[in-house]
UniProtKB/TrEMBL annotation:
Keywords: Membrane, Transmembrane, Transmembrane helix. GO terms for cellular component: plasma membrane. It is a multi-pass membrane protein. It is found in: Membrane. This is Na+/Ca+ antiporter, CaCA family. The keyword Transmembrane applies. Its main location: membrane. It comes from Accumulibacter regalis.
Length: 362
């Protein structure tokens, strides 16, 4: 029964997100808003609608660990799993704007979350501050879009088509109906997913936080998985990377911002294990994007394999720690004493040697 509720909720979340994006984007274009702006705002944020719905639903149900774990786990999942899988399909080209602007913004949002969480709680004011930053970031993107090249505008215009005259969704009433249906699906889907996740946690003997960091995080990231993999297969590899980076920024500013506001005076309590480990992993993952993206401006297949391997190791650590397994000390020693230092040395060598190789080639 819990499995049916979980997958039913997941299906409702995906359908609800797609329906909401379709209705909102067509309604916006009916009012004369350009496809570029719609793509940068409604469509980009729409893929994070499941995370928002689940986090808000969890806060309202008093399951704050699921709400926070969902966001932190989704950001780790976005970079390590989604980029890892996408790069294995095809090496991912990284747009220079991502390196100069979007990745530093994602890293800044991660650092800000760590700073706000150090007192053990994300307060109502903290949530309001994060959400205000999201509004400012969105306005900045819209203003910046006016300076985009015609090629970028044409790309979005091809991806996001207005409703055809005479089509059933060309009228504003139908578009509002799509938005309403999407919201209803998101509400029910999030409720089912949270209830099933809490039952899983009790059955497996692990905490709500671990379930939020793993099962819920992976489930609510399905729209990003589908979008990035499809983009990689079609050769739109800059979209595959941009989708992940933009979603990670929105998860912190939007999901946790709204969750903090909904929590009221109580705020969102941060579990000690989250502050001691998981947020630092999220920050390290965001930081790792810079040298990987900068070296050759692409994510090679082997780098995607490393990302994917680290996600498997992260989940394995969470499971071993939750069960207090005897293999945990050995596993931790091998990871911290061998694989992590080896990865750091490799990244440093890549940063030093690749620019030299590029200059020699030119």
């Amino acid at each position: 029964m819990n499995l049916l509720m979980f997958f039913g909720g997941l299906i409702l979340l995906v359908i609800g997100a797609n329906t909401l994006v379709r209705g909102a984007s067509k309604l916006a274009m009916s009012f004369g808003i350009s496809p570029l702006v719609v793509g940068l705002t409604i469509v980009a944020f729409g893929t994070s609608a499941p995370e928002v719905a689940v986090s808000l639903g969890a806060v309202l149900d008093g399951k704050t660990d699921i709400a926070i774990g969902n966001v932190v786990g989704s950001n780790i999942f976005n970079v390590l799993f989604i980029l890892g899988i996408s790069a294995l399909i095809a090496p991912l080209v990284v747009n220079i704007q991502l390196i100069r602007q979007e990745v530093p913004i994602m890293l800044g949002a991660s650092l800000l979350l760590l700073a706000l969480a150090l007192d053990g709680r994300l307060s109502f004011l903290d949530g309001g501050f994060l959400f205000a930053l999201l509004v400012a970031y969105t306005v900045f993107l819209v203003v910046q879009s006016r300076r985009e090249t015609q090629a970028a505008k044409d790309e979005f215009a091809e991806e996001i088509q207005p409703a055809e005259a005479g089509a059933w969704d060309s009228h504003w009433a139908a578009q509002i109906g799509l938005i309403a249906a999407g919201l209803v699906a998101l509400v029910f889907g999030s409720d089912y997913l949270v209830q099933a996740s809490v039952s899983f946690a009790k059955t497996m003997g692990v905490s709500d936080l671990v379930i939020g960091l793993t099962i819920v995080a992976a489930g609510t990231s399905m729209p990003e998985v589908a979008t990035s993999i499809a983009a990689a297969i079609k050769g739109e590899r800059d979209i595959a990377v941009g989708n992940v980076v933009g979603s990670s920024t929105f998860n912190i500013l939007g999901c946790l911002g709204l969750s903090g506001l909904v929590s009221g005076n109580l705020g969102l309590a941060m579990a000690p294990s989250l502050l001691a480990f998981d947020i630092w992993v999220m920050l390290a993952v965001a930081l790792a994007c810079l040298p990987v993206f900068m070296t050759g401006r692409e994510i090679a297949r082997w780098e995607g394999g490393v990302f994917l391997g680290y996600y498997v190791a992260y989940v394995a650590y969470l499971i071993l720690a939750a069960q207090q397994h005897d293999a945990l000390p050995v596993f931790s020693s091998v990871m911290m004493g061998f694989f992590v230092p080896l990865t750091v040395v490799t990244l440093v060598v890549m940063v030093i040697l690749r620019p030299v190789a590029a200059s020699e080639h030119t």
